[in-house]
Amino acid sequence: MEHHQYQQQQHEESNTSSTVVGGSVGGSKSSFLCRQSSTRWIPTADQIRILRDLYYNMGIRSPTADQIQKISATLRKYGKIEGKNVFYWFQNHKARERQKKRLTVDISSLLTPCSSPGLYGVGPMGSSCCGGSMLMERSFRECCLSGGGNGSGMESSMGWVGLESAATPWMHPYPLKHEPGALMVSR
Amino acid sequence: MEHHQYQQQQHEESNTSSTVVGGSVGGSKSSFLCRQSSTRWIPTADQIRILRDLYYNMGIRSPTADQIQKISATLRKYGKIEGKNVFYWFQNHKARERQKKRLTVDISSLLTPCSSPGLYGVGPMGSSCCGGSMLMERSFRECCLSGGGNGSGMESSMGWVGLESAATPWMHPYPLKHEPGALMVSR
DNA sequence: ACGATATGAATGAATG
DNA sequence: CATTCATTCATATCGT
Questions:
Q1: What is the model's pLDDT at position B109?
Q2: What sign for the dihedral angle of Cα A94, B25, B48, A158?
Q3: How many CB pairs under 8 A join A and B?
Q4: Mean pLDDT, residues B89-115 taken together
Q5: Which of A92, B83, B105, B183 is the most exposed place for a label (fewest CB within 10 A)?
Q6: 3-class DSSP state for residue B167?
Q7: In the 8-state DSSP scheme, what is residue A57?
């Protein structure tokens, strides 16, 4: 999981050139000869440690804008970082955790068809909140995509104009929603 | 935002066979072996260009149902697209622009108590009638739902100067006021 | 050199 | 509108 985590590099501040990762193995050659100090944020070990702590120990999964600001301000002491980096970190971390679980459960659920829904522990706290099998056929919600443009036989007629009350028209037409059988886990 | 923009598969030649089949993507042959998932709209470069033009130059931010219809009709010439795609595009674009600001908030505001008298000289001014025949009728959604307020027909005057965040949203931080919340990250 | 994997970043689609 | 989710893209790094 965690591989590549060294290279602390530039704490903001100038240090022109450097190019960060330049070094790398193989000696020389590497470098992209152009500064271009890495395009993406490279978290330092401390930053990751703190982020993990917030995630696992504090139960923070989707920090609010305020939290993100505070967090990034704190992490900035350990290296360059922006709010978006924190935002993405949590987004990705959560998503991948869920994704991983989904894949794992996916297999097991194939073996155990009936999974009584029951009440899921709706707590936002437990990091293990995603219990149960999600399985969620993610492709089913989009199977109803009309040919919108051309080619699908139906031309541009889209009459979703019908004076909808106040919501998005295109949300009604088809029965999309989440998988009926699969239990959507709370968040 | 500027990356990954290949794979245009609009070809409307109604060619039989596979079509679509997601994935592809340059480089990685990843191959998902099945699931023609990529059902989601993949804007073409032209569509994006036009959308951005409407957003930044025309000042359109929350197009009405009629505008959406016209826009999607226009964009359809450049690739498959549906009304909802346009709707979501504007929603997301606007939301992200705002979010960027919110998370960006960095130091600049903390360091500069009060300065930069009047920036924002440059308004979106455009919108003086959306080019063409689009009438500026405020959408029912805005009026009835959410206290959108401004039903005057003029867009909210935010000052995105010419920056065109077209490239990377949060790449450019700019002054934004935000109270330095002191609350500890909690949940 | 590749291929696999981890992960930062981006964005379409939804939901509240 | 704000938030969240799912996917996908882009890279860096490591294993063989």
A1: 56
A2: negative
A3: 105
A4: 77
A5: B183
A6: coil
A7: I
CA of A26 to C1' of D2 (A): 47
pLDDT band per the 50, 70, 90 thresholds, residue A127: very low
Taking a C-beta distance cutoff of 8 angstroms, is the pair A45, A8 a contact? yes
Q: Cα–Cα distance between A162 and A169 in angstroms, integer? A: 8
For B31-51, give the DSSP string. Answer: --SS-----S----HHHHHHH
Quote the CA–CA distance of A58 and B83 in Å, as a whole number.
42
Provide, in whole angstroms, the distance separating residue A105's CA from nucleotide C4's C1'. 22
DSSP string for B88-149: HHHHHHHHHHHHHHHHH--THHHH-SS-------------SS-TTT---PPPHHHHHSTT--
Running DSSP on this structure, what letter comes out for residue A152?
A: S
Confidence of residue B111 (pLDDT cuts 50, 70, 90): low
Q: Do A149 and B39 touch (CB under 8 A)?
A: no
